[in-house]
Fold this protein.
Amino acid sequence: MIKTRLLFEWSANVHLSHLPALFLLWCVSILGPACSATTENSTQSSFQQVDLLVTEGYFVTMDQEFTEYPDGFLAVRGGRIVALGPMTESSRYRGVKTIDADHGLVLPGLVNGHGHAAMTLMRGLGEDLELMGWLEKYVFPIESELLNDEYVYWGTLLAVLEMISSGTTTFTDMYYFEDEVAQATADAGMRGVLGQTIIGFPAPDHDSPAEALAFCEQYVSRWKNHPLVTPAIAPHSPYTCDEATLRASKAMADRLDVPLLIHLAETQNETKQSFEKTGKPPIPYLNSIGFLSNRVVAAHCVWADSLDIGLLKQSGVGVIHNPESNMKLASGVAPVSEMLESGVAVGLGTDGAASNNNLDLFQEMDTMAKLHKLNGGSATAFSAREALVAATLGSARALDLDRDIGSLEVGKKADLIVVRRNLPAAIPMYDPYSLVVYSLNGSSVDTVVVDGEVLMESRRFTKINVPEVYAQASRFIEEIRAVLGRREGSD
Ligand SMILES: [Zn+2]
């Protein structure tokens, strides 16, 4: 305004012959601010505006070449990674939000390949029992009396809190009332592959496999194109579903183009029963009925010989290893090294909190590496890096999500975690894989991002109302205590 007024006063006294010069001055005067804005704009356009910038981190990308950026940055736009590299290249980007990783490790978010989230509410109940005794005395009575949509919603959110706080960004679920699991997952901003259970006896949510399958049709159509939720069909196991149910589940998964989740070859007893019932071990049996394919994600596969492993590889089945659950239930040791050598996609899972008893994949990686060293009879039989692969890209491959998650690469979804290094147990760091797998645990995770959204920052949850989750969980825990009290009274 001042410039314009000055120019006007001055121009009133100039001759017409001065008009070209006047015009030039007018340009400078009037357009001047615009010109300098353009300059600013062009300066700005040399920066790329992004939604989120993560700076000053030690990036362990888990890409094919195991690229690391000891002093690196990462830029996110529209939920995907748009740039990643050394800090020296970060000046080209400006973030709406910036997270200073403070030299902490930045890793792809961990991927929990198998679990039953709402079973957190039964954590630590009826410990150190044989599987059948535990199921009959505790799990089945509680599930039949108490399980409903609210129980599953709040139980899942408790699990999601625990998983986010220990660095998991994607989880897999097989349970009942799966619509509620999907809702809790979406509300929390977490990523999930969520399978509705089909089981050959009356379940808490459906009286028959046919009813459960009819529900799957609606469930899948509700969630099919959700950015965070991948709906799935989960026939419980070959020993709890008859052949017709297994075939119908497989046909529906093919038709709806969704994953097919199942427990497979978990115990020696399952193999024995399968022989008695079908004349074959579980894996060849499923192969003989045309069940196996690359949409199958099989939890456990503990009792798998080289022929079974060949079938898993040939049909493209993804396998999820759950070492702590297998150890706690004395199920056996899955032949993970042989599966990996054969080219089977092997991921890592925690199984439900009732048989583990936590959902911390850091502890699971530690156990995995040590178990397979011991089982292989050599300290070189399994490495920390292989365990971290299993918990990231391995699970992503097994779930057929590796195009989007499992490693930090440009074009992939921005699912990442920042792990603190300013901790006594993190000093010194000679090797990041060793530090993550053998020294740290889930409580070392500082910040968690899923789909470009910050879900936990400096260990504070940004999206979930934590006191409400605790309050709702206590309500159901009291109900569980009451059920147990009544049963003890009637014994
Ligand atoms: Zn399980």
